[in-house]
Amino acid sequence: MREKMRSKKETEDPQGKENKTPKAPDTTRISSIGWFVFLLFIGAAVLGSVLLDSRGVSEGWIACYAGGLLLAGLLLMYSFKVANQWEKAVVLRLGRYRGLRGPGFFALVPIFDTTPIWIDHRVMVTPFNAEKTLTKDTVPVDVDAVLFWLVWDAEKAALEVEDYKAAITWAAQTALREVIGQMPLADILVGRAKMDAELQRIIDERTTPWGITVQSVEIRDVIIPQDLEDAMSRQAQAERERQARVILGESEMQIADSFAEASRAYINNPTALHLRAMNMLFEGLKEKGALVIVPSSAVDTMNLGGLSGVTALAQQAMPLPTAPAEEAG
Fold first, then answer.
1. In DSSP terms, which residues pair with 150 in a beta bridge?
2. Residues 30, 33, 37, 43, Cα dihedral to 10°
3. Torsion sign (Cα): 291, 294, 300, 306
């Protein structure tokens, strides 16, 4: 059972599995110049063997001559190195640090010098994450982030830490978990810029002694549990509905205030109220086929002269139908 759990954990955490496997030193890197020199020594060995054989030299001496040239060519092949423009090689002589070489061509002392580490000075991109990490208000979240960093001191990166790439990955992951534990979920969701700056500060403090500087940290995604996401969605919907009801109530208050102001304008001017009522009734009856039912109390209030007056007003407002033309006899 423990073996199954261990294998499952390693498959779920590819970064940890990769970091457990140490990277072999790059001591067998061969440059194009080294290959060229080795091919020249091979050609010299073949040509010299043919010439010696034509002069009757014994095969033993010819074999020693060819073997010596091949061995010398092999040593020179591993001694001539070329570093790219963005690289520097760490040179060790009998295990002790001798300095940095590159970029460009440089030569090593055969057998004594080695280049176990090649430092890349370009900006590196490292993705990292924190799974099921509790926030300050005890909410488990999954956070994915990207780290942009570079090596500014190749000597410290090679001598102060065993594997600086793995070290910065783990430092970034632990810093992310630490920052998540100090912030509530609301601040994580809306304050990513603040979280990025805090992560950059913490990671840079840890990696500066290794000769590594952090340029920026960017949070890519924050994943919360599905149940909590649904609850937050319902909460946001309820909040929007509450705001809509508040706005509707404020609108009703404004309308009521407008009607109250209009009533104050009509209270001492019955003629204006009468004209307004006539205009409203006319607007309702001017459409063809329109029917307006007016309460008798409203008719008395508007002084329209009873139901006969309303009927006459409706007949005047409705257009008369045109009589059909009589057929010619």
1. 213
2. 100
3. positive
Cβ density class 157-188: b for 16+ within 10 Å, e for less: bbeebeebbbbbbebbbebbeebbeebebeeb
Token pair 């952090």 in the structure block, residue:
214
pLDDT for 173 equals: 92
Closest CA to 86 of 105, 102, 108: 102
| Separation between Cα atoms, residue 38 and residue 70, nearest integer Å | 8
Structure tokens at 7: 């294998």
Superfamily for 124-224? Band 7 domain (3.30.479.30)
Under 8 Å between Cβ of 171 and 205? no
Report domain extents, the chain: 21-115, 124-224, 225-268, 271-316
Q: φ and ψ at 328, to 5 degrees? A: -65, 140
CA distance 157 to 118: 10
| Measured distance CA(8)–CA(285) in Å, rounded | 81
The residues that bridge with 212 in the sheet, in sequence order, are 151
* CA 203 – CA 217 distance, rounded (Å): 9
Query: CA-CA distance, 32 to 104, in Å (whole number)?
Result: 12
The confidence score (pLDDT) of residue 3 equals: 41
User: Taking a C-beta distance cutoff of 8 angstroms, is the pair 91, 98 a contact?
Assistant: yes
pLDDT, mean of each 10-residue run, the chain (329 residues)? 40 44 56 88 88 83 88 90 91 91 89 90 91 84 92 90 90 91 85 87 91 90 76 72 83 82 74 72 66 62 51 54 46
Q: Report the distance separating Cα 120 and Cα 115, nearest Å.
A: 14
